[in-house]
Design brief:
By secondary structure, the chain is an alpha+beta fold. It is 24% helix and 30% strand.
Length: 164
């Protein structure tokens, strides 16, 4: 099991850890209209998956904005996944006028968190992380941020996304 910290307190991550070089496992999440979405819905596209604990926090807000701005020119899809309710994600996107990122909710059954090994035990939140998948869903980049309140390495993630 992987250990991180969240606000300097040790947290164990549960779920199956995904590694670079793996074929990414499928998952089922909800979009802002409560439609079931799976990894297969983005078949044939490269993907930058930005995972955040909650869209309504400062670091998560900035992480989502940064990937929205920096990766939008690429031919692929930017997914932001959290356990926020779809209604909160929809409200946040509308109030922030972000249209290059797809927000998805894992609140229903933690399918993404379980399959990627990023559930923070005892918190029902996802650990801050970034995954870059190529068009065939091979994981070409992975970062699980050691301290949950810190930013991911934007430059390394964006470089991996641009070079897929």
């Amino acid at each position: 099991m992987t250990q991180i910290t969240f606000k300097d307190k040790p947290i164990t991550l549960i779920g199956e850890q995904v590694k670079e070089g793996d074929i990414a496992p499928n998952f089922t999440v909800l979009d802002n209209s409560l439609n079931l979405i799976t990894l297969d819905d983005f078949k044939g596209k490269k993907k930058l998956i930005s995972v955040i604990p909650s869209i309504d926090t400062g670091v998560c807000d900035q992480q989502t904005r940064k990937f929205n701005e920096e990766a939008s020119a690429e031919d692929g899809v930017i997914l932001t996944i959290s356990v926020d309710l779809p209604f909160a994600q929809k409200r946040w996107c509308a109030s922030n006028s972000l249209d290059n990122v797809v927000t998805l909710s894992d609140h229903r059954d933690l399918s993404f968190g379980e399959n990627y090994g990023v559930i923070m035990q005892g918190m029902r939140l996802l650990a801050r992380s970034v995954f870059v998948l190529n068009e065939n869903n091979k994981v070409v980049y992975k970062e699980i941020v050691n301290e949950g309140t810190d930013f991911p390495d934007f430059e390394l993630a964006l470089e991996a996304y641009r070079n897929v």
